[in-house]
Amino acid sequence: MIKLPWPPTVNHYYTVARGRKILSKEGRAYKDYCAQLMMVQGTEKIQADGYSVSIIARPPDRRKRDLDNILKPLLDALGTYGAISDDSLINDLRVQRFEPIKNGSVEILVSGVNE
Predict the structure, then answer these.
(1) d(Cα 22, Cα 26) in Å, to the nearest integer?
(2) Which residue, 12, 21, 49, 70, has most beta carbons within 10 Å?
(3) Would you say 27 and 21 are in contact if contact means Cβ atoms under 8 Å apart?
(4) Number of other residues whose CB lies within 10 A of the CB of residue 7
(5) Helix or strand or coil: residue 69?
(6) Three-state secondary-structure class, residue 76
(7) What pLDDT is recorded for position 94?
(8) Beta bridge partners of 95
């Protein structure tokens, strides 16, 4: 199980520079921090033909939130670290919302499927 902090929303994950949509400073910082956390946690780097990813989301508060807004930063972080080789290979993706906790967090379980 990979434990990571609550990600920035997609609205804060990207920015526009010179007319191009790029990863924001906040987005780069989140990906780098998550890679460090996964290294400290000893997260396995799985090489597979496909992946199953389950996410338990514990938001930081009770505000209304779209769960799909947290996916891109989380999946990019998994790919940046190498926990998965490419998020285009995810064949099964599940997200569950649980009760909020202070500062929010996510728990991710990744398994590989070799066909």
Answers:
(1) 11
(2) 70
(3) no
(4) 25
(5) helix
(6) helix
(7) 97
(8) 55
In this model, does residue 67 exceed pLDDT 60? yes
Asked if residue 48 lies in contact with residue 85, where contact means CB atoms within 8 angstroms, the answer is yes
DSSP labels, 11-39? HHHEEEETTEEEE-HHHHHHHHHHHHHHH
From CA 7, how far away is CA 46, in angstroms rounded?
22
pLDDT tens profile 4-60? 999 998 778 888 888 988 888 999 999 999 999 999 999 999 999 999 999 999 999
**Which H or E run contains 74?**
helix 71-81
Percent of the chain with pLDDT over 90: 77
Cα 14 → chain centroid: 15
Contact 43, 83 (CB under 8 A): yes
DSSP string computed for 80-100: HHTSSS-GGGEEEEEEEE---
Tokens of 82: 């190498």
In angstroms, how far is the first alpha carbon of the chain from the final one? 23
